[in-house]
Amino acid sequence: MNDMIQEFRDTAARLFGDFATPAALEAAEAGTFPQAAWDAINESGFGLVLVPETSGGIGAGLPEAAAILLAAGEHAVPGPLLELVLGNHLLALAGREPSTAPLALAFAEGTVAAAQPLSLRNVPWARAAQQVLVVARTAAGAGLAVVPARELELHAEIGDASGEPLARFELPTSTPWQPLAGLDFDACLRRAALLRGAQMMGAMRWCLERTTAYTQERKQFGREIGKFQVVQQMMAEMASAVVASHAILDAAIADPDNPSMVAAARSRLGDAADIVFAHGHQVHGAIGFSYEYVLHFRTRRLMAWRDQFGTVAYWRRVLAGSFTGRKADEVWPVIAG
Question: N or C end of the chain: smaller count of CB under 10 Å?
């Protein structure tokens, strides 16, 4: 990690640590939009990290944006931060002004047909957004629809494990689609998947650190539970899953236009999330499942985020496609390359 990326991460961690308190997280899950946090995010300029300097942004790259999202995942920051970061990048590519208001972001399956309305489901934060951004495949390539949320009939759906609000809606056939300069649909999806992966990594790192500390605090039968072999085994599995995931995620962020690398990273993150969730709660025991203890704010988000911007099964199909039609002696070069 270079100095610039580390600086973004440290700055974000300090900022998020000030307002991502248990009380703020509980209020957000009860339906109160975290306005104070949102104002602080806009004041920091984090929402403009991927916007070119010529458009009034910071002009940084995906690694810097991922560093911000990783810190957000560590602190379980509520609100559509990823949507603001990537959404403003897409708005800039479409020649539009960046936003400081909340955005919602959705990816449509299939190719948009001009004569048919487009139905979208399970869109996070759509009911709190000022604008809803939809990326789709069109006859002319990747297209972006920017629709004021007030013009959509938003229907609340059952919230996911993270407690974030979800909505479904239908885009009318008259919705205009703007071309995205330089990115196709899959490239946009890969970037969203990697940024969500960075949030997952932040949450997993926090869970590992907190669980490790807990094994030294909690005593059973006269000694710390971290001295029991079965606990040490679970912690070793948890640590190896987090370290391996972080390594491949960093490699994918450095090469976001490599579908195989991105697919491998998201697949590995999905497996690691399962391990962190299971072992983290098992080591903590009953206290880990209580609402008053803050572990669940990360583990529940892991369960929701692992299937956003492409499910684990979707990314495994993409990864498997890298080997389709390969001869036996061609498999290893694909893996190693």
Answer: C
The span from the CA of 195 to the CA of 67, in Å, is 9
Higher local confidence (pLDDT), 194 or 112: 194
**What is the dotted CATH code of the domain comprising 3-179?**
1.10.540.10
pLDDT digits (tens, 9 = 90+) for 90-99: 999 999 999 9
How would residue 64 be classed by pLDDT, with cut points 50, 70 and 90?
Answer: very high
The tokens for 16 are 């998020």
Average pLDDT over residues 51-72: 96
Contact 183, 149 (CB under 8 A): no
Please list the residue range(s) of the chain that carry CATH number 1.20.140.10. Answer: 185-336
Query: Which residues, other chains included, contact 208 with Cβ-Cβ below 8 Å and sequence gap of 6+?
Result: 238, 239, 242, 276, 280
d(CA 184, CA 246) in angstroms, rounded, equals: 26
Tokens 């309305």: give the residue: 117
What are residue 302's phi and psi, to 5 degrees? -60, -40
- Superfamily in which the 185-336 domain is placed by CATH: Butyryl-CoA Dehydrogenase, subunit A, domain 3 (1.20.140.10)
